[in-house]
Specification:
Shape: extended
Distance between the termini: 40 Å
Structural class: mainly alpha
Oligomer: single chain
Number of helices: 3
Helix content: 40-55%
Number of strands: 0
Largest sheet: none
Order of helices and strands: HHH
């Protein structure tokens, strides 16, 4: 069985101050993962600080176009449209 949840990242603070050794973190990649995007959207909407909420939603919005362009590219490749045409490539000559 493939391990899906594991310690993949080391979290440090940018100012060099120590992190709580008992803290638990969950890293989300919002530029490639729709579930992560939905999680960030929900997290932002629950923020009591309106400035922070707006910053999170703006960050999410700035990645929107690139996210969907990547999804379209992956889809086109999966159905044989990776050459920029609208004709399905079936591999036969």
């Amino acid at each position: 069985m493939t391990q899906r949840l594991y310690g993949k990242y080391n979290v440090t603070k940018t100012d060099g101050s120590p992190v709580d050794p008992n803290a638990q973190y969950f890293v989300l990649r919002i530029d490639t993962d729709e579930a992560a995007r939905q999680a960030l959207d929900t997290y932002a909407k629950w923020q009591p600080d309106p400035v922070f909420r707006e910053q999170l939603l703006n960050w999410l919005a700035t990645t929107e176009k690139a996210f969907w362009e990547r999804q379209e590219k992956l889809y086109r490749e999966s159905v044989g449209l990776d050459d920029g045409t609208d004709e399905v490539q079936d591999g036969r000559d």
